[in-house]
Amino acid sequence: MAKTDIKKRLLNERSLSVIVHSLFSAWMLSFAFEGQIFYSLAEAYNFDPSVTVFSGIATLFAGLLFCGLFIKTKKAARRLFLTSNIIFIAVSVFFFFPPSVFWRPGIIVSSFLCGACVAGWAFCLKSSTPKNERIKMAADMLILSNIFMIILNMASIHISPRTGLALAVMMLIAAFAFALKISDNDTSVSSGASEQKDNPVSIVKPLLFLSLFIVTITINSGLMYQVVNPAFAHLQDLASWYWALPYIVAILVIRNLPSKVNRSNILYVAIAMIGLSFVAFMGLGRGPAAYLVVDTLMMSACGIYDLFWWTMLGEMLEYGSNPSKILGIGMSANVLGVLLGGVIGSVIRSSNMESASPTLLALAVVCVTLVMLPPLHKRLYSLLKDNAYLSAFYELPAQEQTMHIDRAAEFGKLSERESQVAFLLLQGKTYKSIAEDLLISENTVKYYVKNIYSKFGVQSRAELFSVVLKKEDISSIA
């Protein structure tokens, strides 16, 4: 298969995956996961949503955490998503009618399946995008899903909850239709021992430490849902369109930063913004200006951190045999933090504690996360530092990528097939996915990779990156 055909297929699958997950996520965020549509319906029917919301978040956490136990292939993940979408549509229909015995079980079942679908999306994230490009794919999904969510929230608030729900169901139907076009070829699972040799670093400790960091910092998100947002409930018209806008803008900015910019410094800025948002919440009033300040600071920081851990988890997918486990564990930490923060916030509200209590707790969380950032950076760098050459290669224009490969092929005396394999290696593809792209066996790929390494005098993919990207090394081979 020609390199241009491979790129075209991957780009098409990437676009479809982003659209499908964004449409589904918009329904989830506006309805199943503490969504405005659900709260508007509950308010219209004088229905207490607290127990249902708590149950939904808990089962969403379970779906994320345990998805990897029963979803082990891309084909299974695609089948789960299509089946779940039908269930989501059926459950949504119950909410066009007054509260019934179906409401709470519907939210619980849907939330569990939502978690499983989010974790299962890891197969699309891994198979359609090289690991250094996953920041852009994750950013596109987060931006698009929040734009769709804003549309649904505004429809629910300014027209009617049922109108918002009807639009959400239409998005689910569209997601189902687009998902049918996504290939179920299982290129996302690593190829066992051969890949472990190429990527020998264990992800267990970095993943667990990252998850602990996510749980800690997202406690503030739970506080926001239970303490900050209710305090500005009278500004619903403004919040309907502005609430997620700073989140979108922050992600858009981070997505388009040059690769040379040190993003770790931005993480410290984001932590400071969280602290300042709670200080502003305590010190300012409850008017529109105060809301704009608090929401801008908080949601911008949330956007920066959401994209950060989506990106880190996305790059970690390369180091495990089941990507849904990795993404599921990381995102379950996000939901657990929201759950813990929500419980704490509910206790603060119900016990009539001093208004400063949420702020003091949020600042304590900020201090803890500041302490955690340096060791987190160290652990992530030890795992992902070899991405530098891959990133440098893939960020080059297509013409320059081809030039590097052609020059490497000339000096290394690579055959046409070896050149194709080398190109895909530099794209960060696994042996199994290279075999499927080129319609050859995995053993044949290993044979070609062995020849390529031998001709360049290297022993790993990282060394090959170095040789191909450095003119002086290429020249020395001649």
Assess the beta-strand content as a share of residues.
under 5%
Kindly provide the radius of gyration, computed on alpha-carbon positions and rounded to a whole number of angstroms.
24 Å
What's the total count of β strands? Answer: 0
Low-confidence stretches: 188-200, 386-391, 471-478
Topology order in helix (H) and strand (E) letters: HHHHHHHHHHHHHHHHHHHHHHH
- Highest CATH level, the class of the largest domain: Mainly Alpha
CATH-defined topology of the largest domain? Growth Hormone, Chain: A
Summary of the model, kept short:
The chain is mainly α and 478 residues long.
Description of the structure:
The structure is a single chain. The protein has 478 residues and is mostly helical. The chain folds into 3 domains: 1-186, Up-down Bundle (Growth Hormone, Chain: A), CATH 1.20.1250; 199-385, MFS general substrate transporter like domains (Growth Hormone, Chain: A, Up-down Bundle); 389-477, Winged helix-like DNA-binding domain superfamily/Winged helix DNA-binding domain (Arc Repressor Mutant, subunit A), CATH 1.10.10.10. The protein contains 23 helices and no strands. The two termini are 29 Å apart. Mean pLDDT is 81; it is low at 188-200, 386-391 and 471-478.
Task: Give the topology, please.
Elements (H helix, E strand, L loop, with lengths): L2 H30 L3 H9 L5 H21 L3 H21 L8 H18 L1 H7 L5 H25 L2 H19 L13 H6 L5 H28 L4 H7 L2 H11 L7 H21 L4 H29 L6 H28 L6 H28 L2 H8 L3 H15 L3 H11 L4 H8 L3 H15 L4 H9 L1 H7 L1
Helix pairs in contact: 1-2, 1-5, 1-6, 1-7, 1-8, 2-8, 3-5, 3-15, 4-5, 4-8, 5-15, 7-8, 7-11, 7-12, 7-14, 10-14, 10-15, 10-16, 12-14, 13-14, 13-16, 14-15, 17-22, 18-19, 19-21, 20-21, 22-23
